[in-house]
Specification:
single chain; alpha/beta; Rossmann fold; 4-stranded parallel sheet; 11 helices
Length: 369
């Protein structure tokens, strides 16, 4: 009996060995996959607003998907950050924002961030505009000398005459309803949210600026993730080609609408207008009031009457209550013009869709006049 048990021991032991081998195989595979995932983990890219997310998505296509900080409908100028927003901001590998001229609320939070943060408005090579400057016939050349001169001149003027400018602007608003202000674009009143001479931070609406932004993002991503550097560069090249084709289509279509009058509720489209030789006829500002007075509304209606058939554009998500009373009985159309890309998916073609939708909305309304 004892001898038989001894003889059986090796047999039983051999039966146990394959069980250990079966368990060891998945453990080794899991460890290998985990190691591979660590080596190729995608970088976390975060942007402040949707348009920057769309540009980043074109560069990161096939590698990862960038996140956006502000939810739809939130104002880039005034946003109360939640604790989860702060955590997301501090954990992202790369963070992109327009800069203090757009998202001023971010400056104090970014002081505690240890990873790279890029203020887009400071990127070299951008074409920058300032509120109140005259639009050129066509801004495709984007001369750097003009930009540097404007920035220096406006900064100096602001430091010396800030108080005078605000007072003059207030007086101008009080008399903005006079007929003389409807004669030319140069005499146009300005959006109360933007002081004349200050930087126009809606810089993503110039396709040439989007290319400059994408170039900076591609370089940053390649440095942070060398394994995918070639993919980022290839995505950048494809983005440039698609934008170039889109630019040519929009230039041809919008060239036929340059003489048509249109008004805006928010002076956010100057970059896009300059790129395609357009210029809004006026800005309907309520002077900071939620509900402007009857005199103000009557003066704005007078401007529409003088313009004749025209378009009035507002930004989503809310149609201004003032719009209906302004256009009642007049040959005027009110249409949405989206500068932030509400509802557009953060995909490789998202930024082109933003620009194409913007151009199509303008063209469709102006062509119908």
């Amino acid at each position: 009996m004892w001898l038989r048990d001894v003889i059986m021991l090796p047999i039983q032991f051999n039966r146990v060995l394959p069980v250990f081998r079966l368990f060891s195989i998945p453990l080794l595979v899991t460890a290998s996959l985990f190691s591979s995932a660590q080596a190729h983990a995608e970088i976390e890219v975060l942007t402040s607003i949707k348009p920057l997310q769309l540009i980043a998505a074109a560069v990161q296509d096939g590698v990862g998907k960038p996140a956006v900080l502000l939810p739809p409908g939130a104002s880039p100028h005034h946003y109360a950050m939640r604790p989860s927003d702060v955590r997301q901001l501090r954990s992202a590998d790369l963070f992109y924002w327009i800069g203090p001229d757009m998202e001023g609320f971010l400056a104090p939070v970014l002081e505690g961030r240890k990873r790279p943060s890029v203020a887009i408005q400071s990127l070299p090579g951008l074409t920058l505009r300032h509120f109140g400057e005259a639009a050129s016939e066509h801004d495709h050349d984007h001369e750097a000398e003009h930009d540097a001169h404007d920035e220096h001149a406006h900064d100096a003027h602001d430091d010396e005459h800030a108080e005078h400018s605000e007072q003059a602007h207030d007086e101008h608003d009080d008399h903005a309803h006079e007929a003389t202000h409807a004669q030319t674009a140069d005499h146009d009143e300005h959006d109360h949210a933007h002081r004349p001479g200050s930087l126009d931070a809606h810089l993503w609406l110039l396709p040439a600026n989007a290319v400059t932004i994408a170039e900076g993002m591609a370089q940053d991503m390649a440095e942070a993730d060398p394994a995918n550097a070639e993919r980022y560069r290839a995505n950048l090249s494809a983005f440039k080609q698609r934008l170039d084709a889109l630019d040519k289509r929009l230039s041809q279509r919008l060239s036929e609408t340059r003489s048509k009058p249109f008004f805006v509720f928010h002076e956010a489209f100057d970059y896009f207008e300059a790129a395609y030789g357009l210029k809004h006829t006026g800005v309907f500002s309520a002077g900071g009031e939620a509900q402007p007075g009857a005199r103000h509304v009557a003066a704005m209606r007078e401007r529409l009457e003088q313009a004749g058939p025209s378009c009035v554009f507002y930004e989503p998500p809310v149609r201004p209550r003032l719009a209906d009373s302004l256009i009642r009985g007049l040959p005027v159309k009110v249409t949405e013009l989206d500068a932030l890309g509400y509802g557009i998916d953060a995909s490789a073609g998202g930024y082109e869709q933003l620009i194409e939708d913007l151009g199509s909305s303008l063209a469709e309304c102006l062509e119908s006049l």
